[in-house]
């Protein structure tokens, strides 16, 4: 990602590179994963137990600021699905899974983008991945060509990636 700011102070001049407001970001990310799922049934219950393991390696170099991003983490993400049939048309199910959201390049990039001089933004090169847990309870009715689903979902995260804004009252930025 190349960030170049060009400036010109009058219409007759060519735009020139503003080296104080330009940078180059070299970014590389590798993700390796393995999946495993096991299905089985006991009487009227069906089970699906799974897991995913991912290894993520991130390397980022910000040339001008000499800032480096080095992240290397392994994440285990289990999943569980249990369902039970009642009569021939009713099914009740429960599921749980753990999910991962990696920060995007702009979330990590510390380059201060000042295209709008009153709204500066930049990333955090130390930002970790977001992990969240999702639960679902579902009731399904199949009757002929009709399918009715009622689902209750809940999820939470202790490591949420979010934007943070604040006003510097001294500068108005």
Could you tell me the radius of gyration in angstroms? 25 Å
Sheet of most strands: 7 strands, antiparallel
Shape: elongated
Structural class, by secondary structure, is mainly beta
- Spatially, the strands of the biggest sheet line up as 1-4-5-6-7-8-9
**Number of helical stretches of at least 4 residues:** 1
Low-pLDDT segments: none
Mean pLDDT: 89
Please estimate the helix content: under 10%
By oligomeric state, this entry counts as single chain
H-E order? EEEEEEEHEE
Terminal Cα span: 25 Å
**Number of strand segments:** 9
Indicate the proportion of strand residues.
Answer: over 45%
Furnish the topology, listing elements before pairings.
Elements lengths: L1 E2 L2 E2 L8 E2 L5 E20 L2 E18 L4 E20 L3 E12 L3 H4 L21 E14 L2 E12 L16
Antiparallel strand pairs: 1-4, 2-3, 4-5, 5-6, 6-7, 7-8, 8-9
Account of the protein in words:
With about 170 residues, the protein is an all-beta fold. It is built from one helix and nine strands; from the N terminus they run βββββββαββ. It has one helix spanning about 105-110; strands spanning about 1-5, 5, 15, 25-40, 45-60, 65-85, 90-100, 130-145, 145-155. Strands 1-4-5-6-7-8-9 form a seven-stranded antiparallel β-sheet, with no helix packed on it. A two-stranded antiparallel sheet has the order 2-3. The protein is elongated and about 80 Å long. It starts with a strand and ends in a 16-residue tail after the last strand. The mean pLDDT is about 90.
